[in-house]
Amino acid sequence: MSEFKTIHDIFAPLSAGAPGAFNLADDAALLDQSAFVVTKDIIVAGVHFLPKDPLDLVARKLIRVNLSDLAAKGAKPVGYFLGCVWPTNIKREQIELFGSGLREDQETYRVALYGGDTTMHIAKGAPLTLSATFFGIPSRQGLTKRSGAAAGDDLYLSGTVGDAGLGLAALKKEMKFTTVDKASLAGRYHLPEPRLSLGAALAGLATAAIDVSDGVIADAAHLARASGVSANLDAAAIPLSRAARDWALAQDEFDAAIATLAGFGDDYELLFSAPPSMRRSIGVAAKASRTEVVRVGSLSRGEGVSLSDGQGTAIAITSAGFDHFRK
Amino acid sequence: MSEFKTIHDIFAPLSAGAPGAFNLADDAALLDQSAFVVTKDIIVAGVHFLPKDPLDLVARKLIRVNLSDLAAKGAKPVGYFLGCVWPTNIKREQIELFGSGLREDQETYRVALYGGDTTMHIAKGAPLTLSATFFGIPSRQGLTKRSGAAAGDDLYLSGTVGDAGLGLAALKKEMKFTTVDKASLAGRYHLPEPRLSLGAALAGLATAAIDVSDGVIADAAHLARASGVSANLDAAAIPLSRAARDWALAQDEFDAAIATLAGFGDDYELLFSAPPSMRRSIGVAAKASRTEVVRVGSLSRGEGVSLSDGQGTAIAITSAGFDHFRK
Fold it and tell me: Shortest CB distance from A85 goes to which of B40, B42, B120?
């Protein structure tokens, strides 16, 4: 399938309603707004998604992991630029399936495709590689940075964590679950839910925020490092789904299991900080955005991240998922 | 080498002077301007550059192919977002070399790194894949589109074409040249020169423009298609370097050799259109930007692209480089 036909048939329709995208028939797009928040994420087959994952789900994951970054910033998404490097043996139906996934999530999140580049591997077996650069409009309350947290702030987490990692293990047949649990956990891995409403509601309230892509522990460390503080996580407070809790209870050591779940990535929840004086406002923001939010720890002077049980005893953090190359 | 160290040591210094980049320590960047022209290009080892090309040259090529798109639009570059997927066996020195190439061209073109993503292949032998999303400020005279050309317009070309293709053939040892010619042709392949000054001078004068990445014939077809006209190229007018002319003269059929050179990509010259009434202004713009520009044909009603010799006889266009997947 030629590049022109691919763009004309599959991608150009995805730019409808974005005049500055010039129907994807130009070298560049024109963005006519007053300021932008921009983020870029790359996903690679075999690294960030499974080589056999259906391409509509992969497309939607690509959109969602990028939207999750905008959610952390409190920004409202507008559109994106797409880069695709297809494997040598890609078929038209596969690219169409990919396009249908883009379309579905474009409608869900009201974003449009503005441009990009599509090319093909020459090396046999080289993996599908996808890049997206998303842009959004900052909230009037400003942009929530990673670096704004202060010692004394509370740490909060949305939703539940560890599910995507368990879902990945289930999909790779490394762990066994009931059919129902497997479906829900795999769903968390395949289709993260970017916390856009919550992120927008937190703008001006949260002192710092990050989306949990590397795992709660690693991302708490990122936030703490950027803000020049240390993060202290309460293992008992880390929110778990019923399936994840069942899994943890079935392990030899419950605390170690919690540490494992807090080391799993790909959940795309929001981890954020706010001073204790804002507790009520955070509750209101969570309620307004219909998102579960719990307090999971606090920030203090120093550096690094610690995890402790209900009695304040430190739980060992394994290095897995901590300072790895992936983001 | 960890992702954090890579970003902190090598990439974050490249964001100096770009306050909205937050020292690359955040999930997103903030762009605070009134309007943007945005473009995205991906380059893959073995497809768009040679696997053995030094990574500083690869970095500079990545910057330049993207700047070339902004040049075609008449936009002034500001900064970029970078995406890297490294091979499994990448060494720190290699990434440093890549960073030094970025720095060199950032200084040349006065652009800054605003953000991005860096990750690593898991599959052994999977090729280095690089993506950049560049943004610039549109000219006050507006953005030069691909689609603005009209029947009757002249077609112009900057610099010389075919050199990069010959340079690639020389590097792959498919063709032989003198040492001096090989160096100059290979230089055209490794380090294209984005025609930013010319592009800026053409804003408001050119009715349409495109950068020659797929080859003169293919890109004339792209411009003609976007504008709803046909392009007629005069083979005798196509500007050739001394080395390319020598090569063409040494071939069995000179006309066929010209068609081959006009089918080669990667020259990153500007192909643009303007009405005959603007010939003097185009000459002034070329002079002001110190760029050689020649008239290479015209646009007429209809569709497609034709190449003819000095007597108006059609020269066969091979399909090579015409409707391929690469861009």
Answer: B42
